[in-house]
Amino acid sequence: MACLFLLKLGRQKSKTTDMRPNDAMTFYFSTVEESLSAPGLKERSPGSTLMIFVAEKSKHELTRLMQGLEERDIPYFGAIFPKLIYDNEQLEHGFVINTLDRVESIHVIKDLNTGHIEIPHYNFSRDEGHEVCAITFVDGLTSNISNYLSKLFSIFGNKMSYFGGGAGSLSLTQMPCVFSNQGIYQDAAVLAFQEVKSNLSVKHGWEKIHGPIVATKTEKNIVKELNWENAFDVYQNIVEQDSGMKFTGDNFFDIAKGYPFGMVKEYSESIVRDPLSLNENKELICVGEVPQNSVLNILKGKKETLLEAATSAAVAGINTDIQARRCLVIDCISRVLFLKNDFDQELSNVKRVINNKFSEITISGALTLGEISSYDGGYLEFFNKTMVVGVFE
Amino acid sequence: MDGSGVVTEIFMLYELSMAIGNSLVFEENCHDFLNALMAKKELDNTWLFEKKAKHFQLSYSIPQDHKLIDLGFNFDNFISPASIDRGKYPDVFDQFGLQGGALAMFPLSHSGLLVLYSKKREVFSTKELNQLAPLAKKFGISLEGSKVHEASVSQKDELDRLYGELSETNNQLMTEILIRKDSEESLKLAKQKAEDSLEFKQRFLANMSHEIRTPMNGILGMSKLLQSADLDKKNKIRLGSIRSSAKNLLVIINDILDLSKIESGKLELEEIGFDLKKMLGEIISSVEYLAAEKDLVIDVEVPPELEDLVMIGDPVRLGQILTNLVSNGIKFTQEGKVSISCKLIDPQRIEFAVSDTGIGIPEEKLKTIFNSFSQADSSTTRKFGGTGLGLTISKQLVELHKGKLHVNSIEGIGTRFHFSIPFRRGSMEDLPVSKHTTPGKLDVKGLNILLVEDNKINQVYAMSVLEEEGMDLVLAENGLEAIELLRDRHDFDVILMDIQMPIMGGEEATQVIRTELKLSIPIIALTANALNGEMEKYLDCGMDAYVSKPFDDTELVSVIARLTDRQHKAKPAAKQDVVEEERLYSLSKLERIFKGKQPLIDNMIDKFVEQVPKDMNLLLEASRDKDYARIGSIAHKMKSSLDVMGVEKTYHTIRSLEKHAQSKTNVEEIPGWVKEIETTLTQLFEQLKRV
Prior knowledge:
The complex is a heterodimer. Helices cover about 20% and strands about 40% of the residues of chain A.
C-alpha cells in the first residue's frame, strides 16, 4: 500500500493521506521518486498509458520522470500546468498521474505556430460501436490553437469527444510544456485517442456587461480594433466605467482578469477570451484566437455566478448513464486568480457533486491556460476562464 | 426578443457574412464560413454538394465525410431553404445515416446545396432559415468565384506545368546543344590542331627541303666541277660515291616532298597535252643505262591506236609513276626483261602495265608493299636500296589520277603492276610549243649576269658554271646589295636571285627592282623551296623563271639562254647577225597536223606567204595611224599564222603587240614591236624563198 504525500500547496502544508489507488488508477506524487516507485504504476494493467499532469514548480523533475518511464518502457503523455487539481485541492508541486486503458495512439503535432498543421489519421472502423475521446494538451501560449482545434474537428467532427487544456507557465513565458515518449515540446500539441465513453460539460458563469461589439481587426490572439477603433481605447472606456478603476500601465491584468471578452454563440454560453496584456500599440493580447469580425461582449465575473457555474458543470457531468470511473477537471488558472481563496469552494462543490453520484472517484485535473472541449458533443472550442468537467467510464 | 437580442443576432449575422469569401481558395472559403457557422449555431455537421446530371456530389463537409459521396435522391423539391425532420423525410435521414435531430437544406446559386445538421434541434425554425438564406446565397456566389479562380489557377498550373516541361525540354536541348557545341568545339580544335600540324609539317618540310637542298647544291655542283679535275683513279671512285650518295639523298628528299604534297592534298595534276609515245620513250631513255648495266631488255608496247595519241593530262606525274615502276622492276630483276605496255580498255580509259621477270613478291607481303617505307623485306632495303617510298607515291599518284594500282606477283617468276586511268584526247594544237632551244646551240657568251647569293659554296659553283660558259658575273651578297648595284648599272642581261638571304630576300628585292627601279631585266629565282606554291609566288612577285637548287648547270644555262634570247631581239642589230643565220620557222607543227603529207603542208606555206605580207602592210598602216584597235585585231590574226609556221622569234612580240594595242598600254613600244615583226618577217620570207 503506497503512501502518497500530498502537499497542500499555497499554504505550505503537507499531509499524508493513506489512500489506495482508485479503480481508475489516479495518483498524486509529490516527487519523481515516489512516482517511479509507486506499486500502482508498476502494477498497472499491461498496455495502459500514463497521462501525466506536471505542476509548473515541479517541471525540473520532469526529465528524470521521463527517463525513468523510458527505462521502464511505459508509454505516457502529458503537460506542464500552472497548478494541479487532486481531490478537492489545488497543488503547486508534484505530479498527477492517471493510467488510461485502451489508448489507441499518441501523437505530437509540432510547429503549431507555423500554421502548417497536420492532423494524424484515426481508423474509426476498428472502433465500430465504441466511443472515442480525443485528449489533447496544447502549448497554451502558442498561436493557431483554434486553427488546430478546428482542423481536428473538421476531420473527426462529432464522431469523438474532445477534452483537454492549454499548458504552460503562469508567468506567461513560453516554454516546452507538452510531452510524450517522443520528447517535450513548445508550440506543439500532444494528442491521444482513447477508446472510452465520456460525458463532458463546460461552464464559466461570466456575464455580459457590455455588447455586442465587433472585433473589427484581429490577428490570431491579438485584438487590434474594436468597433473600428483602437481595441484598448474601447475596452478601457467600458471597463474603467464599470469598475471605477483606472488602467495605470502596470495594473492591466489586475483589472482585466475581471473583464474578459465573450465571443457570442447562440444557444450556449459565450466563449471567453482573457485579455492578458497590452502590446506597445495598445492592442490586447488574449489567450486563444479571436477571429476577425467576431461579435464580442465584455463580461464581468461575480463570485456567486462563477461558483454556481462550476457546480452546474459538475451536475451536467454526472448527468449521464455511463458507469464513471474517473473524473477529470480542467479549470482555468484565471478563475483561481479571480476567486482567490474562494476557489477551494469551487473545487469542493465539484467534488461534492461528483462524489454524490460516484463516491469512489477521486477528482483530478489541472489549472490551465485555456480549456478544450466541445459543448455537449457539439463544436470543438478553446475556452478561457471556464471549467470543463469530464466524466469517463 | 428584446432589442438587444435582435442587435446580437444582427451582429452574429454580420460576423458570419464577414466569414464568407475571405479566400479565393475553395477549401479555405468553405472552412472559414462553415466553421464559423457551426461554432455560432451549435451545429454538428455541414455538407456542401454540387449538382451533377443525376445526383449531388459531395464537395466539402465538416467533419470530413468519406462515406457519403453523393446523394441519389431527388432534391428538386428543395428549391428554397427548408428544414427537414426524420418523420417527414426518413429516406433523407437514412441517406445521411442520421437517427434524430434536424437537417436544413439551402439551395445555392449555380446548382449547389448546403446541408446543415443539428443533433439537438428538432427543427430549424423559419426565422433561422430566413436568417441564414441570404448568407447561403452569398456563400454560393463566393464559391463560384473560388471555382472560377481555381479553374484559372488550374489552367495556370497546367500552363506552368507545360512551361516547366518546355523549360525542361529546352534545358535538355540546350544541354545537348552545349554538349554538341563542346564536341563541335573539340572537333574544331582537333581540326585546327590537325590543320596546324599539317601546316607545321608543310613548313617543316619546306624549310628542311631548303636547308638540305642548299648544301646539296654545293655538294653536287662542286663534285661535278671536281670531275674535270686531275684526280687519280682511287679519288675518282670516291668522288663517284659522293655524287651517287648525294643524288640518292636528293631522290629521297624529292620522294618525301612528293608524298607530303600528295597527303596534304596540295599536289594538283596539270592538264596539258602530251605525246604518249614520246613520253614513254623518254622514260625508257632515262632508265636505259640502269637496264644496260644488268643486261636487261626494256620493252615498250604501244598499240597502233595509241601511236599518235595526244593525251590531256599531267605527263610529269604519269611519267613519275611509270618511271618508279620501271626502276623498281629493273631493281628487282636480275635477268630477263622489264616492259611497259599500254592499251585502251574503253574510249576514255587507258591501262598501263609494267612487268618484270624479277624475284617477285611473297604473297603475304603484297598487301603491305604500298605502305610508306615498306619493302617486301627489310633486307631488301639493304640489298636493293631505295627509300621504300616509290610504290607508296606511285599508288597515291595513280589514285590522284582516279585509278587504282594493282599488283600481281609470283615469287621467282616476276611481278606485274598495272593501273587504268581515265583520259581525255587532245590534238596537236594542245601540245605545248617548245620554248627550249637545244643547249648545245646556245650562245650565252658575253652575257652580263648579276648573281645575288649569300651561300659561298653556291657562289663558287654558280661562278664556275657561268664563267665556263663565257658569261661575265657580278656578285651581290643579298637583295639590298643587288639593288644598290642596279641603281648604277642597268646593263645586266640576267639576274640570278636567291630567295632566302639575310638583310633582304629575293622576293623583296625583285619587287623593288620591278616597281622602284622599273627595270625589266629577267630575274631567275634560284630556290631550294621546291614546293609548288612557292614557285608560283616567285613568278607573281615579278620573277621570270626559277631554277630549283641544287641546279643542273645545263638547265640553268638553258633558262638563261631562253630569257636572254628574247632580250636579244630588242637589242641593237649588232647581235642580229648571229640570229640571221638561224632558221626562223619550223614545219614540225604542220607536219604533225597534216601527218607529214607534203602537198598539204606546201599548200599551207603558200597561203602563209600570200596572206601574211598583206597583214603586215595593214599592220604598218594601222601603226602609223595609231589605230590601236586595228593593230590589236591584225596582231591577233597574224598570231595564229605565225604559230602554225613555228616562228618562235615573234612568239612574244606578237602577243605583246596584241595585248597592249587592245588595252592601249605601252603604246610607245608598239612601233618598235611592229618594226621587229616586220624585220623578222622580211628575213623569214627570204628564207622561205630560198626553200
